[in-house]
Amino acid sequence: MKSKKGIMAVTGSLLVLSSVLSGCGSSSTTSTNNTATPATTAGASSTPVSAQPLSLTWMRYEHASQAIVANSKAVQEISKRKNVKLNLQSVPQSNYDDKKKTLIATNTLPDVMLVKQDDIQNFADTGAFLDLTPYLDKMPNLKKVISQQPEINKNKIDGKLYGFPLVANWQGVGGQLSMIRMDVLDKLGLKKPTTYDELYQVMKKMKEANPDSYPFTARAANGLTGTENLINPISFAFGSGYTTFNGTKVYYEPKDKQYKFGPAMPEFKAAITWLNKLYKDKLLDPDYATATSQIWQEKLNSGKSFYFQDNNGFASTFNINLQKKDPNAKFDMLDTMTSPSGAKRNLIYALGHLSESYVINAKVKNPEQVVQFMDWFYSQEGIEVTNFGNKGEDFTGENGDYKLTDAVVNKYKDRQPSAVYALQSEYGTGYLGLAVNNDDHAGLPFNSKEWVEWNTKASKALAAGENVQFVNDPPFTKDEREKLKQIRTQLDAYLAQNMDKFIVTDGALNDWDNFVKQLKAKGSDDIVKIYNDALARVK
């Protein structure tokens, strides 16, 4: 019987790779087969094995699709190889932010804890997290990764590094891409939409043929509200943008290489006008602001909705579930659509998850021993153990060319609802497990033919500049962090009170200019200046 701690029930079916879950990372070159992207080269394991046993409490959130197993294979291998006992503390993802902030506020952190970059920015000054900077010379593997991914330097606070960032050794390409029910289009004799105006007309036809449906559905995800997660990809596609990955109400404009405030731009108003039109015509799910991932999945799995602009990897499992009733049912990826302004672009997830890091409790015993152990996760051995298991038994190959053995693939290929998550749960591997340097080769044998096609298409669009990755926040000074807290307190609250009004209320857009004036009065220009000043220091 496997020992488990804090396991959530797996709700809804998922076959999406962790590579297309949310995250931030660095730029890198696309692989020659265009099926995924290598991001780093693993370093050799030079971390000494602890002479004395090391016991660490290790806390991270537990995703609904991958249960945390207390005595997983990775935990056992770490104990054997590194003489380190990990005592895992898992918290359901839905409750993790509250639990994490309580522990930080009361200075009762576990030894190792997964946090977001804004947690580090907000709480580094409290002294709760160990400053890793004095120990960098003891961490050759992390130093090598930083040299290959200088974007990590943005995580520093006043020049100090407080967290071990979640990076990617090899990863697929995906994100908030347009996915539509091709069988429904075919049945209605409709062509694939190439513009957002055409998409509106297509959804009207879908609604006419299916009166009880809401063709476009959305959800809250990745720490963002349903409203934020709906507006982000649409506003960016229209030529503007809404939030950073952590929800700050500015966005990075790649054309100008600077941050901007979306609501002040005409392209943003056009995006909200488009969403308002969808809502008025009952084409947009009225539950978009409150729908959980589970509710969202149920609607797309059951045929109540036909379009989403979100994590495209979910469509693999939607297809499996839909085809149990209708063999012709199929979600497929649209080409990048053109907006009314002429913009033609998608917002996708960055490589790696640099917005998430493991911090060390500043009060930890033997800090040098702990940081040397954490450095091991970036080594080739660390990558292998925390992504695949034992070489020869579970996988073959070297860095950049890992492959699960037939025995492992055959054991898990029929596991439901997701073979790869069943494997990674029991092994304790991958991004949602213990991997700090993630490698998605483990998912390839279980991916659908469509997933491979979508990944290839997304990779080509990335190379062509149509798919644009989220960027990591720049590092802020102490004064800037304090100002950001103050501004966000009033700005976020005002936006939260009013943004849905413009989407769901007839005539509300007539007050848009006054709305933007109020946002300026509450600090929208100031927050843009803070971000661009910070960005200028790292260019």
TrEMBL record:
Residues 1-22 form the signal peptide. Keywords: Cell membrane, Lipoprotein, Membrane, Palmitate, Signal. The keyword Cell membrane applies. PROSITE patterns: PROKAR_LIPOPROTEIN. InterPro entries: Bact_solute-bd_prot1 (IPR050490), SBP (IPR006059). Residues 27-49 are annotated as: Disordered. Transmembrane segments: none annotated. The keyword Signal applies. It holds the Pfam family SBP_bac_1. This is Extracellular solute-binding protein. It comes from Paenibacillus germinis.
